[in-house]
Design a protein that fits this description.
The complex is a heterodimer.
Chain A (H helix, E strand, L loop, with lengths): L2 H7 L7 E5 H15 L3 E5 L15 H5 L4 E3 L4 H13 L3 E5 L10 H8 L2 H4 L9 E6 L14 H5 L5 E3 L4 H13 L4 E6 L6 E5 L10 E4 L4 E5 L3 H14 L4 E5 L2 E3 L3 H11 L2 E8 L4 H13 L8 E5 L10 H4 L3 H9 L14
Parallel strand pairs in A: 2-3, 2-4, 4-5, 5-7, 6-7, 10-11, 10-13, 13-14
Antiparallel strand pairs in A: 1-8, 6-12, 9-11
Helix pairs in contact in A: 1-2, 2-8, 4-5, 9-13, 10-11
Chain B lengths: L2 H4 L26 H26 L13 H9 L6 E3 L5 H6 L4 H4 L1 H4 L8 H4 L10 H16 L5 E6 L6 H13 L3 E7 L2 E2 L2 E2 L12 H5 L3 E5 L3 H16 L5 E6 L18 H8 L3 H11 L5 H23 L8 H4 L7 H20 L1 H5 L5
Parallel strand pairs in B: 1-2, 2-3, 3-7, 6-7
Antiparallel strand pairs in B: 4-5
Helix pairs in contact in B: 2-3, 2-13, 2-14, 3-11, 8-9
Classes of the chains: A alpha/beta, B alpha/beta.
């Protein structure tokens, strides 16, 4: 069904409740933000006439003009660095980095200036900007097109780092990111761009909060981005085997919603952290450590991690071996020191 | 514009020679007497600020000071060509320009003293925080100027950098963005011959740094950076071009850093004393003094007045830096983001408990209320 997709893409005259892809939801969020705030501008590489290589900015330049959505020279540091100056001068830039690894030339601007200018000036200068980065694998992309760089950004004080896993969150979180007085690194899971879901444009989300993606009582899977549907798939299989799996979509990698995560893990006593990035010194490590620190006396088993391997991201024909899948998550769940009485169907 | 119009001169523009005599120029005219006197006052104050700050580092009152001794004409020129609505994007070496824009000397030194990472509100005097990474601020200036152009304001943005910064990718990206978007920005390179220890010959093989401008499609010009009259004329023209919609330009000032990079640097390892001494003869202060005196614009009484004014600034700087600012450790957590996260609040509570324990354990610390 592409009809809903086209219907909702740019019609900003009315609120929308309907089914759309994540790509459409993001496009809609940009269009609504541009409409509502004259200082919002969207720019980057190929975001104008082409509408972005993933078509997230489709039609924005045509509809709102070059003043609101425009192409820049091909230079990532230049894109982020000029956005810093625009933000200093009262604008709200939303920049697109074409692919995760292509954002690295801008890393100095992000870490040294975007993240720090508010702090340096004791709040006198704010950086209300959004850096959108398509990230992660699962689309058969060649090298430098599929990295998960969230740990680099989440490690940097001053940055809000978020990633949605549903069209609803994609819409609501991007609106919240653009409205935020702080800089937001907005990681878009490429693999989910074409996934569909219900979107109600009147729903708001507080950045910094996790979401219960599925209720469950036996074990908590903590995950985010493209791994959320994989964890839900694992939970569905586990349910058929008599084990109740709770899935938490972390959503906000920094700041971290300890309250939701801690309450969830305490309620089940078992936890598995799932992420597609390499596990060593990762967001998954951080989540695991925080759960151990806060829930140790409630835990029935060690907190396990299921992550990508500590290798460069796999070439397209090997990526299915690299990416965590439902089986790998189920294996980790099975290893969590279950008594026979814990679940009817276990062990598998 | 024809290619020839974008190219800089073979010899840097000069209006007052090193010996203090006027040089006629077909394109750039000598600033008026009042402007020259103001500039000279700035030079005298700038020299005093440099020397005072350098002394304060030796006395342990400042963590570090990158001196601009010898480059005062660039610093003062950059400040004086800007109007009240214009913005300056300085580097760590540009404290004199920052102060000349109106920032209180003590506030300008907060970064280098070590109390905080910047000591002033940028909007108050239209001076961006001093940038330490090289060339990154040039992009900020270009983005800032983009917003200016979008609103149709007549503000001009002047960004400073050194010769070493022209090797950085951000320099090239800033020049390119500025030209493509045709924004009202002037990039002013203070070529002082060394990037810490590495000479200009290792930064570029171009005939001059100003020649780089043509590659981006903007005019470049070279100026004697120790001649404040020439700096005012050349930089002033660039600023006016930007203001009137003429777009960006690059100005390269040929000057020399008379002191080491900072107090941590030993410049005897990479340059001969004779070379340094040779630049004394081209000093920006003495040539203006000679010129103004010969013109009958400066006498001993005026000199004394200027020296006394500079001494007042130095005394204020000494007093401010000799006083220990009351620093609040909670400031570490206050400005990271607009709203403090739960994680940061928890960490602040940890530190607060540590401070309280320390203050109970020592009367000295209790006296200071935990502010060590």
């Amino acid at each position: 069904m592409t009809i809903a997709h086209d219907d909702t893409r740019l019609d900003t005259a009315r609120p929308v409740v309907g089914t759309m892809t994540m790509a459409t939801a993001l496009n809609r969020a940009l269009a609504d933000a541009i409409t509502e705030d004259p200082e919002v501008v969207v720019f980057g590489e190929d975001v104008g006439a082409l509408g972005g290589v993933f078509r997230i900015t489709d039609g924005l330049a045509e509809r709102f003009g070059e003043d609101r959505c425009f192409d820049t020279p091909l230079a990532e540091s230049g894109i982020v660095g000029t956005a810093v100056g625009m933000a200093m001068n009262g604008m709200r830039p939303v920049v697109e980095m074409q692919f995760d690894a292509f954002a690295l030339p801008a890393f100095e601007q992000v870490v040294s200036h975007v993240a720090k200018l508010g702090n340096r000036t004791r709040g006198a200068v704010r950086m209300p900007m959004v850096i959108r980065i398509p990230f992660g694998g699962g689309i058969g992309g060649v090298e430098h097109h599929c990295d998960s760089s969230e740990a680099y950004y989440a490690h940097t004080p001053g940055l809000t780092v978020v990633s949605p896993s549903t069209p609803q969150d994609a819409y609501s979180m991007l609106r919240a990111a653009i409205a935020s007085p702080d800089p937001v690194v907005f990681l878009e899971p490429k693999k989910l761009y074409w996934s569909k879901g219900e979107v109600d444009t009147s729903i708001t989300v507080d950045l910094g909060t996790a979401r219960v993606a599925r209720e469950g009582t036996d074990v908590t899977v903590l995950t985010y981005a493209a791994m959320v549907p994989v964890a839900l798939e694992a939970a569905e299989i586990a349910a058929s085997e008599g084990r109740s799996v709770q899935v938490i979509d972390i959503r906000s990698l920094s700041p971290f919603d300890d309250a939701t995560v801690t309450a969830a893990v305490k309620s089940t006593g078992r936890a598995v952290v799932v992420a597609e990035a390499p596990g060593y010194v990762s967001v998954a490590s951080e989540i695991q450590a925080r759960v151990f620190e806060r829930c140790f006396e409630y835990l029935e088993a060690p907190v396990r991690r299921v992550t990508g391997f500590d290798t460069p991201f796999a070439p397209p024909k090997l990526e299915h071996w690299y990416l965590p899948d439902a089986d790998r998550i189920l294996d980790a769940i099975d290893s969590l020191h279950w008594d026979d009485s814990d679940a009817e169907g276990a062990p598998r | 514009m024809r290619h020839d119009d974008l190219l800089p001169r073979d010899i840097p523009v000069s209006l007052i020679a090193a010996d203090g005599t006027a040089v006629a120029d077909e394109r750039y005219s000598m600033p008026d007497a009042e402007t020259l006197l103001r500039a000279y006052q700035g030079l005298v104050e700038g020299r005093r600020i440099n020397d005072q700050a350098y002394a304060l580092v030796r006395q342990g009152r400042m963590a570090v000071y990158p001196s601009s001794h010898g480059q005062e004409a660039c610093q003062i020129g950059a400040s004086l060509v800007l109007g009240e609505r214009d913005w300056l994007f300085p580097t760590y070496r540009d404290s004199v320009a920052v102060i000349a824009r109106g920032v209180a000397p003590a506030d300008a030194m907060v970064l280098l003293k070590g109390d905080w990472h910047s000591g002033y509100d940028p909007a108050e005097h239209r001076v961006a925080p001093q940038a330490t990474p090289l060339a990154t601020q040039l992009l900020h200036a270009v983005g800032f100027a983009y917003a200016v152009k979008r609103r149709g304001e007549d503000t001009v943005v002047l960004a400073l950098c050194g010769d070493g910064a022209t090797s950085e990718g951000d320099f090239h990206e800033a020049m390119n963005f500025a030209a493509v978007f045709h924004v009202p920005v002037v990039i002013f390179v203070q070529n002082n011959e060394f990037a810490i220890s590495v000479p200009l010959s290792r930064q570029t093989a171009a005939p001059s740094l100003a020649h780089k401008a043509i590659g981006y499609g903007m005019p470049g010009q070279r100026v004697d950076g120790n001649d404040v009259a020439a700096v005012l004329a050349v930089l002033g023209e660039a600023v006016e071009r930007a203001r009137s919609g003429g777009g960006p330009s690059l100005v390269e000032a040929h000057t020399y850093r008379m002191q080491a990079h900072t107090n941590a640097d030993d410049d005897t390892r990479y340059r001969e004393r004779e070379e340094v001494k040779a630049w004394v003869a081209r000093d920006p202060l003495s040539r203006m003094q000679t010129y103004l005196t010969a013109q009958g614009l400066l006498d001993d009484a005026a000199e004394e007045r200027l020296a006394a004014g500079a001494e007042d600034i130095a005394a204020a700087l000494r007093d401010a830096l000799n006083a220990d600012a009351e620093l609040d450790p909670e400031d570490l957590f206050r400005f990271v983001t607009a709203e403090r996260s739960t994680q940061l609040e928890e960490q602040w509570q940890l530190l607060r408990a540590e401070i309280e324990r320390a203050s109970l354990g020592s009367t000295d610390l209790a006296d200071a209320g935990g502010h060590r």
